């Protein structure tokens, strides 16, 4: 811990706590989840206490295996991994295999897991690390919010120990699964509503900002050049992930949605945001999972989220390249 110093004029400087922020990554790997894991582990500003998995980009068994494969590649099998919810709270699950392939992480030669998940499930592992952490823990969910909602419901006394939730999900504009909704919130809107209503500070990285976080072919070449085996694996993953986005949107590279939720914890000025009231639609037939913002305050309810609107794409890519290089 850093103590007080002097500013040269005899005035004491305020004490600055430079300890890394403790985080739990809750994910459904997924190509962009894999990069979120990489970035979180690479940065000294963050301490990854655990990785928990949820069904989303692939069924739960595969997302759990993929998380373990990524940690094995990075030599970080010391990070505990726990499996969570295999389906949404209410709705039937839907797996978008066209995005991430049958395995959920197609396109690269990842190693087989060197370890197994811990015996605890995701909810109990999260509760344990939150309870034992010296500082409030930030939850970083990058898949459907089922695990987070179940944790909040099962352990209400631990809610004050959650410093913030930095999530990838939602959209103020267009959806990517329906015209109204982004995939993670569409997958389990009931869980998302619980999270947004929990009273915990939320950093929302939705499609408005993540669709700007593109990794283009020259960026992928940089990853491959600096990273040895790790760089080659992530370059191959991104080339696979780019195919769908090229076919659907005509983009030259894929958006790395999930890593934005990590990156804005590392560099708070990276994402321009606006504080808004955001609620999640759970009843609408055509608007299931829609994140409805209230910029005029018409509801009379206070803002509950810092909603990302724009990102410094070049610096974001630099962070990813630096992260890959650190594991070369």
Would you kindly provide a written description of the structure presented here, covering whatever features stand out?
This protein has 328 residues and is of the alpha/beta class. Helix 1 (31-42) packs across helix 12 (313-326) and helix 5 (146-154) packs across helix 7 (189-196). The chain is built from twelve helices and ten strands. It has helices at 31-42, 60-73, 97-100, 122-132, 146-154, 183-187, 189-196, 207-210, 217-226, 228-249, 257-266, 313-326; strands at 21-27, 46-53, 81-83, 137-141, 162-168, 202-205, 271-276, 278-280, 291-293, 305-311. The protein has a single domain, classed as Inosine-uridine Nucleoside N-ribohydrolase, Chain A (Alpha-Beta Complex), CATH 3.90.245. It starts with 20 loop residues before the first strand and ends with a helix. Strand 4, helix 5 (146-154) and strand 5 (162-168) form a beta-alpha-beta unit. The strands form two sheets. An eight-stranded mixed sheet has the order 3-2-1-4-5-6-10-7, with helices on both faces. Strands 8-9 form a two-stranded antiparallel sheet.
């Amino acid at each position: 811990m850093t103590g007080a110093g002097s500013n040269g004029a005899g005035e004491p400087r305020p004490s600055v706590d430079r300890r890394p922020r403790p985080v739990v990554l809750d994910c459904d790997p997924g190509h962009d989840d894999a990069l979120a894991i990489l970035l979180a582990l690479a940065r000294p500003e963050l301490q990854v206490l655990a990785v928990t998995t949820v069904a989303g980009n692939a069924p739960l068994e595969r997302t759990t295996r993929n998380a373990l494969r990524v940690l094995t590649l990075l030599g970080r099998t010391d990070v505990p991994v726990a499996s969570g919810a295999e389906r949404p709270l209410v709705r039937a699950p839907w797996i978008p295999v066209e995005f991430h392939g049958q395995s959920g992480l197609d396109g690269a030669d990842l190693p087989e897991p060197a370890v197994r998940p811990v015996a605890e499930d995701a909810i109990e592992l999260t509760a344990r690390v939150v309870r034992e952490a010296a500082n409030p823990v930030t939850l970083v969910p990058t898949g459907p919010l089922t695990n987070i909602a179940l944790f909040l419901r099962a352990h209400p006394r631990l809610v004050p120990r959650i410093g913030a939730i930095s999530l990838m999900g939602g959209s103020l504009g267009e959806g990517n699964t329906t015209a109204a909704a982004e995939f993670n919130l569409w997958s389990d809107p009931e869980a998302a509503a619980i999270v947004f209503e929990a009273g915990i500070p939320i950093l929302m990285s939705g499609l408005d900002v993540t669709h700007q976080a593109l990794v283009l072919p020259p960026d992928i070449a940089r990853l491959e050049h600096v990273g040895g085996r790790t760089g080659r694996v992530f370059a191959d993953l991104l080339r696979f992930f780019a195919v769908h986005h090229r076919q659907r949107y005509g983009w030259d590279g894929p958006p790395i949605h999930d890593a934005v939720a990590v990156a804005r914890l590392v560099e708070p000025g990276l994402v321009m945001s606006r504080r808004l009231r955001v609620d999640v639609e759970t009843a609408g037939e055509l608007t299931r999972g829609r994140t409805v913002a209230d910029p005029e305050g018409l509801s009379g309810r206070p803002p509950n989220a810092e909603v990302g609107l724009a990102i410094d794409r070049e610096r974001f890519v630099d962070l990813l390249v630096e992260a890959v290089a650190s594991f070369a």
